[in-house]
């Protein structure tokens, strides 16, 4: 009687080793194919990503001349050549520009915030004009330790600065910066009369 039970028990498991080996082989082949497809998708995706153009705010190129240009009041000769219609349109579009010669940054420091990826700038803005200013635009240039330029970030400050006074702006976030940034130099670009 024991012989019959052994035969039945062994009969069930006799082909199991071969089946198990076949299942493992099929699984390893399909895993290898899946891994190859994943690798191919990563390579194609990285290649496509590298072909995309850089965005304007994240490039490591120096600031364009248009950022550093200050809006100037047109001279009398240029105003005579402009028609009254275009003069009215220009007056409606352009705000009264403040004189930047009497507006300056007297002291500045910076530190990292946001887990080290954001620049927080603290500076004192001195207004020696006979009028208050607002919408002050600053551009901060970030550089490596050796002085080579990394990136520029700009920010418009809506807070007004009274006439013949100074105001300290503490920990103003100017944007994301490169991890290699070690130095920052901020300068004024534009301002409006308040």
Task: Describe what this molecule looks like in 3D.
This is DUF3426 domain-containing protein. Keywords: Membrane, Transmembrane, Transmembrane helix. The protein has 194 residues and is α+β, with helices and mostly antiparallel strands. The protein has two domains: 50 residues; 129 residues, Sandwich (Immunoglobulin-like). 35% of the residues lie in helices and 33% in strands. The chain contains five helices and six strands; from the N terminus they run αααααββββββ. It has a three-stranded antiparallel beta sheet, with no helix packed on it. The chain has a three-stranded antiparallel beta sheet with strand order 4-3-6, with no helix packed on it. A hairpin with a 4-residue loop joins strand 1 and strand 2. The N and C termini lie far apart (107 Å). About 18% of the residues have low confidence.
Strand and helix map with partners:
Elements (H helix, E strand, L loop, with lengths): L1 H12 L2 H36 L13 H4 L7 H6 L2 H10 L9 E11 L4 E10 L5 E11 L5 E9 L7 E12 L6 E11 L1
Antiparallel strand pairs: 1-2, 2-5, 3-4, 3-6
Task: Summarize the structure in short.
The protein is an alpha+beta fold and 194 residues long. It contains five helices and six strands, in the order H-H-H-H-H-E-E-E-E-E-E. Keywords: Membrane, Transmembrane, Transmembrane helix.
């Amino acid at each position: 009687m024991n012989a019959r039970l052994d035969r039945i028990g062994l009969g069930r498991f006799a082909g199991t080793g071969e089946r198990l080996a076949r299942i493992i082989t099929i699984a390893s082949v399909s895993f290898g194919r899946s891994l190859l497809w994943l690798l191919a998708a990563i390579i194609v995706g990285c290649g496509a990503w590298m072909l995309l153009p850089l965005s304007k705010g994240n490039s490591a190129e120096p600031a364009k001349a248009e950022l550093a240009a200050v809006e100037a009041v047109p001279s009398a000769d240029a105003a005579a050549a402009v028609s009254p219609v275009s003069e009215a349109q220009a007056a409606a579009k352009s705000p009264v520009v403040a004189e930047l010669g009497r507006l300056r940054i007297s002291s500045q420091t910076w530190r990292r915030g946001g887990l080290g990826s954001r620049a927080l700038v603290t500076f004192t803005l001195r207004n020696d004009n006979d009028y208050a200013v607002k919408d002050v635009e600053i551009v901060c240039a970030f550089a490596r330790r050796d002085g080579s330029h990394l990136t520029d970030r700009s920010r418009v400050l809506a807070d007004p600065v009274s006439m013949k006074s100074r105001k300290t702006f503490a920990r103003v976030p100017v944007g994301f910066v490169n991890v290699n940034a070690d130095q920052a130099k901020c300068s004024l670009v534009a301002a409006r009369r308040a």
